[in-house]
Write a sequence for this structure.
């Protein structure tokens, strides 16, 4: 990551003027943001992202869900891939969108057919998902029986290769363990974002996760860490503040300026779907839009958008 200072703001909070598009103020785009979105749309291949950490319950699937919701609002073409047999991201997005076209095959059937096209459920004209599938729990055994050890890691990379041309962004949501699921997502990805809770256990797991990512470069040398998104479970808690500081000291600019804070609204969204008109909706959405904006800014630095 460069030393370039990244701004800690949502779409409309910039000094930059906004473009009036008749939408709610939080969805009004600045010229800079519109520019970043146009760069993401430009290439004829998707950027592939995994949102992951070895710590469970730190808001990985929630962040993926919010990224999908924001991308849909911004008109980006996105494919979510739920690589968790527990189907957590699948359950969340199905609360926000009613599929317009259901997949013919499950994820595991697609893997066995070596073709995921028929495993895609279309949620809107821009947003699609390969739904999580309990049968994925047999993936490890299936791979062992059918592939050589190293080929096991390249299964997703191979399967999404032909899908990339149809999307701006492909996002994997996966399990918090060192299993074949995580290996496959990492090997298939260009970038990783790691949500991390500001407390001891998660700090230790994040250190391990970063060394794991370095070791995975032997299978995917184009992999880059886009950053660590801090998650504060208690706002005024001194442990949270201490560990946020430790993340910044250890990982420097890799740590996002924008942070996620615990919010009762997010818990309701998880069960009832995302809303925009209830108390704290706008404030909470702005927090995630801030993270998404910084994601695009970081991407623009690493992808050298504007320098090409
Ligand atoms: N910002 C937040 N504020 C409050 N609750 C949150 C927030 N983010 C996530 N949660 C809640 O924390 C719980 C775990 O979130 P989530 O499922 O996103 O975590 P995860 O890291 O994907 O978990 P797993 O490791 O099991 O896949 C959920 O109940 C979710 O609603
Ligand atoms: Mg999850």
């Amino acid at each position: 990551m460069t030393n370039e200072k990244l701004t800690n703001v949502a779409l409309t909070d910039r000094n930059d003027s906004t473009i009036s598009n008749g939408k709610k103020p939080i969805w009004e785009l600045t010229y800079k943001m519109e520019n970043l979105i146009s760069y993401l749309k430009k290439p004829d291949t998707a950027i592939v992202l995994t949102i992951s950490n070895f710590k469970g319950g730190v808001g990985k699937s929630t962040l993926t869900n919010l990224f999908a919701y924001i991308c849909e609002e911004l008109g980006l073409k996105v494919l979510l891939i739920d690589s968790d047999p527990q189907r957590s991201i699948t359950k969340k997005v199905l609360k926000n969108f009613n599929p317009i076209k259901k997949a013919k095959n499950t994820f595991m059937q697609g893997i066995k057919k070596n073709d995921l096209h028929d495993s895609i459920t279309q949620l809107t004209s821009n947003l699609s998902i390969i739904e999580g599938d309990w049968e994925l729990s047999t993936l490890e055994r299936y791979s062992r029986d059918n592939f050589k050890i190293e080929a096991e890691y390249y299964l997703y990379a191979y399967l999404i290769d032909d899908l990339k041309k149809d999307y701006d962004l492909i996002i994997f949501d996966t399990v918090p363990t060192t299993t074949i699921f995580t290996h496959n997502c990492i090997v298939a990805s260009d970038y990783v974002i790691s949500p991390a809770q500001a407390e001891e256990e998660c700090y230790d797991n994040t250190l391990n996760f970063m060394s794991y990512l370095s070791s995975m470069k032997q299978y995917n040398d184009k992999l880059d860490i886009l950053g660590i998104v801090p998650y504060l479970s208690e706002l005024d808690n001194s442990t949270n503040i201490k560990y946020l500081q430790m993340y910044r000291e250890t990982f420097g600019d890799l740590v996002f300026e924008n942070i996620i804070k615990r919010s009762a609204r997010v818990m309701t969204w998880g069960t009832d779907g995302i809303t925009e008109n209830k108390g704290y909706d706008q404030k909470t959405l702005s927090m995630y839009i801030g993270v998404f904006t910084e994601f695009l800014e970081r991407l623009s630095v690493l992808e050298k958008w504007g320098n090409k």
About this structure: The CA atoms of residues 71 and 78 lie 7 Å apart. The first strand starts at residue 18 and ends at 19. The mean pLDDT is 91. The first helix runs from residue 31 to 41.
